[in-house]
Amino acid sequence: MLQAFASFIVAHGTWSGALIALVAFVEGLALVGTFMPGSTILIAVGAASSHALGMLVPLILCAAVGAIAGDTLSYRWGRTRGQQFLARPALMRHGAWIDRTKRLVRWRGEVGVLIGRLCPPMRSVMPLVAGMSGLHVGRFVVADIAASALWSASHLGGGAYAIHLLNSL
User: Fold this and answer.
1) What is the tens place of the pLDDT at every residue in 36-63?
2) Which residue range forms the structural domain that includes residue 7?
3) How far is CA 88 from CA 61, 94, 108, 115, 144, in A?
4) For 124-148, how does the pLDDT look when each residue is reduced to its tens digit (9 = 90+)?
5) Which H or E run includes 11?
């Protein structure tokens, strides 16, 4: 199913940017991103688009924009309703990594945002925690732009590069 979805995205070039932005947006939403295999989808789309490398850069940009939008919304939720989100049963059983995420944001601020976007267990709660911690929105957005660009490039580019390596064997 994943391969079919990735092939669909690549085959429909007109819609591929919007679809990949939507995947990255949902991945960036607090709680929802926990259940969304966004990273896996991005890697699969990168692999499926390895034959059309000209398509890769626009997809990376679209994925980064979607991730930034989802993270920013989650940051806003953290500012207004963070404790309500963290009190949900789905997150209560992951208290250890939520506590690590809180410590990372308090300790390193925007560097914590960058690290959190790149670490799967923290990715879905990092923006929420950053909003709850009072990290200035400007500092959050700058760090999130860099982190989302790196995240989307590493996943889409990594998928394309893996297929390139396999074809060269």
Assistant:
1) 788 889 998 998 887 777 889 999 999 9
2) 2-168
3) 33, 11, 26, 24, 25
4) 888 988 998 889 999 999 999 999 9
5) helix 2-11
CA distance 89 to 157: 35
CA 11 to CA 123: how far, in whole Å? 29
Give me the phi and psi of 168, to 5 degrees please. -85, -10
Percentages of the chain per state (helix, strand, coil), in multiples of 5: 85, 0, 15
Q: Which one-letter amino acid corresponds to residue 129?
A: V
Separation of alpha carbons 33 and 121, rounded Å = 10
The CA distance from 130 to 123, in Å, is 11
Encode pLDDT of 22-37 as tens digits. Answer: 999 999 998 777 777 8
Phi, psi of 36 (to 5 degrees): -95, 120
Domains identified in the chain, total number: 1
- pLDDT averaged over the chain? 87
Give me 70's structure tokens. 């989802």
Of the chain, the end-to-end C-alpha distance in Å amounts to 26
pTM for the predicted model, two decimal places: 0.88
